[in-house]
Amino acid sequence: MTDAKKVAGNGSVASTTDDGRQVDGLYYQQLGVQHRAWLEKQCRTAEEDLASEPPEEACDLIRVAVGKATLLLKKKFKKFEELVVKHLDPVDGEPIVTLNDLEGFWTLVEIELADTEGGFEQVRKLKENNWNAIGVEEPPQQASNAPKKSATVQRIAGAQKKMIEARLRLREAKRLAKHRMTNGQDA
């Protein structure tokens, strides 16, 4: 992403994208505007789908996707937009927001954005399938003759083993301490 670099007005280093666009405060501002508009459109579409009264499972998926998007818009996007404004128009006495700050925060936003996009993608696929659940094939598992221990049993067995080992170490430490005391008193 960073081919050429030059110093921006507030001392941060601006770079260019692979397609030649300069990565600066305006770039991040535009990125935020585009993704905000996309999320708001997805929410409106999902709410229209909800109005068509799909099955309850579909309604749940729609509500989850819209809820995640709404939280993302109201919290992370709002904070990101505030950081962009502080970068573009720094205020004396306040910490300077650098391009690295914007890049780092945008990375956090992108992670949640990808999760939210996945939710809307699930809703879209469900809608294309006339609100019928899309079966996910699970790979066949090979049967084994040995009985499998549950994770809880394994954890308990591991915890018991650790307790026994700790008791043995304590017993050995006590024995050594007693031996040292008796040898120390005899000398």
UniProtKB/TrEMBL annotation:
Residues 1-20 are annotated as: Disordered. This is Uncharacterized protein. One of its GO terms (cellular component) is glutamatergic synapse. It comes from Trichuris muris. It holds the Pfam family GKAP. Coiled coil: none annotated. Belongs to the SAPAP family. It comes from the Eukaryota. GO terms for biological process: signaling. InterPro entries: SAPAP. GO terms for molecular function: molecular adaptor activity.
